[in-house]
Amino acid sequence: MAKTMGRPVIMPAADNIVAETRRKLNVSQEELAAMLQLTRGAISHFESGKCKISGPVKLLCKLLLKHPDILAGLE
After folding, report:
1. Do the domain assignments include residue 46?
2. Residue 66: how many CB atoms within 10 A of its CB?
3. Are 11 and 49 in contact (CB under 8 A)?
4. What would the pLDDT profile of 12-61 be if each residue is shown by its tens digit?
5. pTM, to two decimals
6. CA separation for the pair 65, 17 (Å, rounded)
7. Residue 37 maps to which CATH number?
8. pLDDT at residue number 74
9. Of 42, 47, 51, the residue nearest 14 (C-alpha)
10. Contact 16/53 with Cβ under 8 angstroms?
11. Which residue in 35, 46, 59, 71 could disulfide with 18, CB within 3.0 to 4.6 Å?
């Protein structure tokens, strides 16, 4: 863990599925947050490594990576 001005800096994991999903779907943090019914802040925290990615979020990301249209029409 790196330090900046005495504070630890949490580095994102290289295998961050939230960041990978967003990149492959070519969507913004806000757009992915809307798809997963989360806040943009939650997506940011997952991507930065500040918050552990929960099982349901991992599962939804895996589904979106395999079937990008799976959430279409589920509102």
Report:
1. yes
2. 8
3. yes
4. 555 799 999 999 999 999 999 999 999 999 999 999 999 999 999 999 99
5. 0.77
6. 9
7. 1.10.260
8. 74
9. 47
10. yes
11. 46
By C-alpha distance, which of 41, 38, 49, 36 is closest to 10? 49
Q: Is the pLDDT of residue 8 over 90?
A: no
Is 8 part of any domain? no
> CA-to-CA distance for 51 and 66, rounded, in angstroms?
24
HEC states along the chain?
CEEECCEEECCCCCCCHHHHHHHHHCCCHHHHHHHHCCCHHHHHHHHHCCCCCCHHHHHHHHHHHHCCCCCCCCC
Q: Which two tokens stand for residue 67?
A: 């079937």
Q: Terminal CA-to-CA distance of the chain, rounded, Å?
A: 40
Name which residue leads in pLDDT, 1 or 56: 56
